[in-house]
């Protein structure tokens, strides 16, 4: 993953500025910040993220896809060949680079927000949104795809429970928490936009005091 940091920005700065000027009111309040979706695998970060980006007229990027493109191999292969520590290092660097290319809607992997440096970068350059889901919802979703390295074991549900115990207190540090329930993804998108609107209103009131 030596070439991870060599990706070029998705849009030129002028195009991004024009897009924000014409776009959704939420987008215009972001400045250079990105909306960063965090949460466990199966929470809907990629699906909700794409629809949220489309609604807000922002670019959408998926950190996992960016890692795979930079490494030239799939995430399961990265885990198998190089190990989780190598993957996490590349993940940290990819997210740091993407945050500098904002604004965008950025979906992160389930373990990304656990890294203190990544949390700090997101706090400085983005607004973090935790898509929170119950165990049964997560398991129904992840069982549809056998591509989750951490769940490739005899007890994937037990693994998911342990991940929830470890990671949920950290995800709770996010700026916003949105319930990713068994409902149309458009509803989750609408809930996210409403929460972002309230967040910006509080930010505006705080700056005026």
Key words describing this protein structure:
57% helix; disordered N terminus; 209 residues; alpha/beta; 10 helices; Rossmann fold
Please report the distance between the alpha carbons of the first and last residues. Answer: 46 Å
Give me the Rg, rounded.
Answer: 17 Å
Shape, please? globular
Q: CATH top level?
A: Alpha Beta
What's the CATH topology name? Answer: Rossmann fold
CATH architectural arrangement: 3-Layer(aba) Sandwich
Mean pLDDT metric? 85
What percentage of amino acids are in beta strands?
5-15%
Q: What is the count of distinct domains?
A: 1
Spatial strand arrangement across the major sheet: 2-3-1-4-5
Q: Low-confidence spans: pLDDT under 50, at least 5 residues? A: 1-20
Note the main sheet: 5 strands, parallel
Determine the structural class based on helices, strands and strand pairing.
Answer: alpha/beta
- For the record, what is the CATH homologous superfamily label? P-loop containing nucleotide triphosphate hydrolases
Chain-wise SSE layout:
Layout: H1 13-22, H2 25-30, E1 34-38, H3 45-56, E2 60-62, H4 63-71, H5 75-82, H6 84-99, E3 105-107, H7 116-125, E4 126-132, H8 135-142, H9 156-171, E5 176-179, H10 185-208
Parallel strand pairs: 1-3, 1-4, 2-3, 4-5
Helix pairs in contact: 3-10, 4-6, 5-6, 6-7
